[in-house]
Amino acid sequence: MSGHSKWANIKHKKEKTDAQKGKIFTKLGRELAMAVKQGGHDPEVNSRLKDVIAKAKAANMPTDTIIRSIETAAGDVDGNNYEEVVYEGYGPGGVAVIVEAATDNRNRTAGDIRHYFDKNGGNLGQTGCVSFMFDRKGVIVIEKSDKINEDDLMMEALEAGAEDFNVEDEYYEILTDTGSFSAVREALESKGYEFAEAEIQAIPQTTVKLTDPKHIEQMEKLIDMLEDMDDVQEVWHNWDQEE
After folding, report:
1. Of 64, 32, 205, 85, whose CA–CA distance to 135 is shortest?
2. More confident site: 196 or 16
3. Contact 138, 185 (CB under 8 A)
4. What does the pLDDT read at residue 9?
5. Structure confidence at residue 4 (pLDDT)
6. Which of 19, 81, 95, 134 could be 91's S-S partner, Cβ–Cβ 3.0 to 4.6 Å?
7. Ramachandran angles phi, psi of 197, nearest 5°
């Protein structure tokens, strides 16, 4: 993805309406709950929980809401047992799409996702049909500011184990392998840096540009429909959205 469109997407996430933010916080709450059930409620011994907390903070989720979600999950022994499921397919114009879901009903979720793909000129495929086109990387985005020295940030990120450091017009992007993500994030966090984004992402190796207006409209609708689903946690794709 280009720097311009990526930053536009990050700002778009942060500028959503209250109702949309509520849905995002609900999804993050589910992700926090799954992390707690897998490794306990103490982020000092549960690295996945610590990573999800950082992701929630980057999404402007209030600290008291984060704490409440963790406490609820820790005390909810007999609550819903969500399982993580990954769906893969192609959108209109051959765009590769990965959908990460957390569901308590696989049949319902798969049926809904298949319906949205079919409705918008795509098709849901088999596991592995597009994931080979993506690399999983830790992504940390820090907004540019007069308080940040670019050289210092780059050195601190690389010394902590980052793979790459990219300078864009409005932000710095730090890439890590999945195994080093937590260590790099914690090192930068300890130095007072605030993140616009901090999570493991599926990064496309190549991108697809859509030129047919119908395909563009269908792809936008497909992403919106999938992201609006309660069961869907993340939608990754290789559509180059830069105009």
Report:
1. 205
2. 196
3. yes
4. 67
5. 41
6. 95
7. -160, 140
- Cα separation of 207 and 241, whole Å? 9
The CATH superfamily assigned to 3-75 is Integrase, N-terminal zinc-binding domain (1.10.10.200)
Tokens of 64: 């008291």
Q: Which of 17-21, 101-105, 223-227 has the lowest mean pLDDT?
A: 17-21
Helices (H), the chain: 3-14, 18-39, 47-58, 63-75, 106-119, 150-160, 181-190, 213-228
Report the alpha-carbon distance of residue 42 to residue 73 in Å, rounded.
Answer: 12
pLDDT in tens, 162-185: 999 999 989 999 999 999 999 999
Structure tokens at 82: 């969500």
Domain ranges within the chain, ordered by starting residue: 3-75, 83-132+206-237, 134-204
Bridge partners (DSSP) listed for residue 100: 86, 234
Class of domain 83-132+206-237: alpha beta
pTM comes to 0.87
Say if 83-132+206-237 and 134-204 have the same CATH topology. Answer: yes
